[in-house]
């Protein structure tokens, strides 16, 4: 979703901002813009479409060494040049970029218009430029409250403006009167300050800073910062000084570059064996038939006292939670459920103080998952993160947890992060189950098979089977069905989501036993039904449901365990290597990822940045 990059120092800022925006592109956006503090006015350039389109409008000789830039994912107002950020106040002396949402937009805007503010966009964000200008120019009270005379003080002007705003923000602001200075503030939308030698950066995502510095300060909610080339000063919005600690960004394995692959999605599918190795490395104790997740910091005594486990996530991450919950409940014999974070947080959930919650997220910034974390914490519950992005808001809010170590995931459609979420939840399952019901022998078998998964993933990807024929049928269809039972029902849901987001083909996933209770009405002659039926205890039942579909003219694309005679039931049969029943999701998901990728490719879709989607969903 929306991205921010800002810089103050000695360098030529315009190309640096454009490069920063390129590194934020993966988050998803629909327009982009920059503002450079050069001379007697701000130079603002905006464009609808790609950063490459913006780059063409940014002159090579745009002078200035302080600037802010933004990629916008539309919320208030359509995708237009006027609505793209940055936004200026009436006189063009204050310029703002904003991530987040202003909830009390209507009364603020009405009052500002009454005072003479001229709005040039339909956005909520433009309010900030006018509101900050109101206080900066010393126009006094806004509404009923009396305000101190702070005219000409940029920090206080931002502070007073934000005290009138309800909602979420990550903002960067420049004042023409204060060249070389950027004011930043955070509440609910992430911001990280980068510290260089005689230069300072601000960004919504550390990924934008990596080419320049690894020394960073993560801003917390309710913080305000003043940046200039010599460094940074920070305060709490409600008063008082505050100094966040300086951290060093970890070298993540893998890089954010596409390499020889035509798309990030394909690259990331093929990175899964290595990503899984990184996730499992040092955490599987084969001899003891156990697992160790140091970041949870839970003793066996504390583990055994856990009364229930609740896993929360959105989209693909929720699908990983479904697999994890099933494994935990069946192996540790503790009630475990998966919850869609956006539903959970708003339904006044009962929080068991002896329960354990996991917030599962690739980005660590998903607003709904973060909201659920806060709700759990407010009710006295324990919540840990299962997060990929180190230092992200969810990781920091939870304090404890397990990092996924997938490496940077740039394609909007999640692939390798899903696999690592599932693997991380299996590790937790093993750690927990060994304190409850799982014997050392069974634990060893589990650990050995888990350890072997990366090689099996590699083996499958080297010979993925007849995907192309399946792609042809799927691309011809009005709607595609995904069926599976048990763990495979979650994989079916993930397969349908992936196909839908990358190819835009309507796709429906159902536990296969449910098909006859309604969705079967949609089947027509030739409808593709993708059935996930690995060699597990439910296979025979899935096979019956598959026959019901076939009897109604469906074409069956069957994902099955290599060597299993069930292959005969598929019109196209795709074998995956054999493994323990528990780990089948890590293998059966692979052909579904490739199917989505190849269908998107065949239909000419924007694979890595599908329409309307964002990588990091920072609005509710
Ligand atoms: C699908 C996809 C989304 C995300 C969801 C949660 O491919 O990527 O469904 O899984 O938006 O995002 P995170 O995991 O960052 O919380």
What is the structure about, briefly put?
34% of the residues lie in helices and 21% in strands. The protein is built from 18 helices and 26 strands.
Q: What keyword list fits this structure?
A:
single chain; 620 residues; alpha/beta; 26 strands; 34% helix; globular; binds fructose -6-phosphate
Structure description:
- The protein is α/β, with parallel strands linked by helices.
- It is built from 18 helices and 26 strands.
- 56% of the residues are buried.
- The model has no long low-confidence stretch (mean pLDDT 93).
- The structure holds fructose -6-phosphate.
- Fructose -6-phosphate is lined by residues 314-317, 361-363, 366, 369, 413-414, 497, 501, 617.
Give the cofactors and ligands. fructose -6-phosphate
Mean pLDDT, nearest integer?
Answer: 93
**Helix run count:** 18
Distance between the first and last residues' Cα = 12 Å
Question: Major sheet: order of its strands?
Answer: 3-2-4-1-10-9-11-14
Secondary-structure topology with pairs:
Layout: E1 3-8, H1 13-24, E2 31-37, E3 42-48, H2 51-57, E4 66-72, E5 87-88, E6 94-99, H3 105-115, H4 126-136, H5 154-163, E7 169-175, E8 182-187, E9 192-195, E10 200-203, E11 215-218, E12 223-228, E13 231-236, E14 247-248, H6 264-270, H7 272-280, E15 284-285, E16 290-291, H8 300-304, E17 309-313, H9 315-332, E18 336-340, H10 341-344, E19 356-361, H11 367-378, E20 383-387, H12 393-398, E21 401-403, H13 416-433, H14 440-462, H15 467-476, E22 480-484, H16 487-503, E23 507-511, E24 528-533, H17 539-551, E25 555-561, E26 572-576, H18 584-602
Parallel strand pairs: 17-18, 17-19, 19-20, 20-21, 22-23, 22-24, 24-25, 25-26
Antiparallel strand pairs: 1-4, 1-10, 2-3, 2-4, 5-6, 6-7, 7-8, 8-12, 9-10, 9-11, 11-14, 12-13, 15-16
């Amino acid at each position: 979703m929306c991205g921010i990059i800002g810089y103050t120092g000695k360098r030529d800022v315009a190309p640096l901002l454009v490069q920063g925006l390129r590194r934020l592109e993966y988050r998803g956006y629909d327009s982009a813009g920059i503002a450079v503090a050069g001379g007697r006015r701000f130079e603002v350039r905006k464009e609808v479409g790609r950063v490459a389109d913006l780059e063409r409008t940014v002159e090579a000789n745009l002078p200035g060494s302080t600037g802010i830039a933004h990629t916008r994912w539309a919320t208030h107002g359509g995708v237009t040049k006027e609505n793209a950020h940055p936004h200026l106040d009436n006189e063009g002396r204050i310029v703002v970029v904003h991530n987040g949402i202003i909830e009390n937009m209507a009364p603020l805007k009405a009052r500002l218009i009454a005072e003479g503010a001229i709005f040039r966009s339909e956005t909520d964000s433009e309010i900030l430029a006018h509101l900050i200008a109101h206080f900066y120019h010393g126009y006094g009270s806004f509404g009923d409250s009396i305000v101190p005379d702070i005219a000409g003080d940029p920090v206080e002007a931002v502070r007073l403006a934000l005290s009138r705003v309800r909602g979420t923000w990550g903002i960067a602001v420049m004042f023409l009167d204060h060249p070389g200075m950027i004011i930043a503030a955070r509440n609910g939308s992430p911001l990280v300050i980068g510290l260089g030698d005689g230069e300072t950066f601000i960004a919504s995502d550390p990924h934008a800073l990596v080419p320049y510095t690894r020394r960073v300060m993560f801003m917390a909610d309710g913080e305000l910062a003043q940046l200039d080339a010599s460094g940074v000063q920070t305060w709490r919005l409600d008063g008082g000084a505050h100094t966040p600690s300086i951290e060093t960004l970890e070298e993540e394995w893998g890089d954010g570059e596409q390499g020889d692959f035509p798309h990030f999605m394909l690259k990331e599918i093929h990175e899964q064996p290595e990503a899984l190795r990184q996730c499992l490395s040092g955490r599987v104790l084969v001899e003891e038939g156990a697992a160790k997740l140091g970041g949870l910091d839970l003793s066996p005594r504390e583990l055994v006292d856990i009364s229930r486990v609740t896993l929360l996530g959105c989209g693909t991450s929720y699908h990983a939670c479904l697999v994890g919950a099933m494994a935990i409940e069946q192996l540790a014999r503790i009630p475990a459920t998966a919850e869609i974070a956006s539903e959970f947080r708003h339904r006044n959930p009962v929080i068991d103080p002896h329960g354990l919650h996991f917030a599962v997220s690739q980005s660590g910034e998903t607003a709904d998952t973060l909201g659920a974390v806060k709700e759990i914490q407010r009710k006295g519950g324990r919540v840990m993160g299962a997060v990929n992005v180190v230092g992200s808001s969810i990781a920091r809010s939870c304090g404890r947890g397990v990092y996924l170590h997938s490496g940077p995931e740039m394609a909007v459609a999640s692939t390798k992060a899903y696999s690592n979420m599932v693997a991380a939840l299996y590790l937790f399952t093993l750690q927990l189950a060994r304190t409850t019901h799982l014997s050392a022998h069974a634990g060893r078998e589990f650990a050995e098979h888990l350890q072997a998964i990366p090689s099996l993933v590699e083996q499958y990807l080297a010979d993925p089977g007849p995907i192309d024929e399946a792609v042809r049928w799927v691309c011809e269809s009005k709607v595609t069905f995904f069926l599976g039972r048990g763990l495979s029902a979650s994989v079916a849901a993930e397969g349908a989501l992936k196909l839908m987001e990358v190819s835009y083909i309507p796709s429906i996933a159902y536990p296969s036993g449910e098909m006859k209770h309604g969705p079967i009405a949609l089947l027509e002659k030739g409808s593709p039904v993708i059935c996930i039926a690995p060699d597990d205890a439910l296979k025979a039942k899935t096979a019956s449901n598959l026959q019901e579909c076939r009897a109604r003219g469906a074409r069956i694309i069957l994902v099955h365990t290599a060597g299993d005679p069930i292959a005969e039931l598929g019109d196209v049969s795709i074998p995956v290597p054999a493994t323990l029943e528990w780990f089948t999701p890590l293998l059966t998901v692979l052909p579904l990822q490739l199917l989505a990728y190849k269908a998107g490719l065949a239909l000419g879709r924007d694979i890595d940045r599908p329409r309307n989607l964002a990588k990091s969903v920072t609005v509710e």
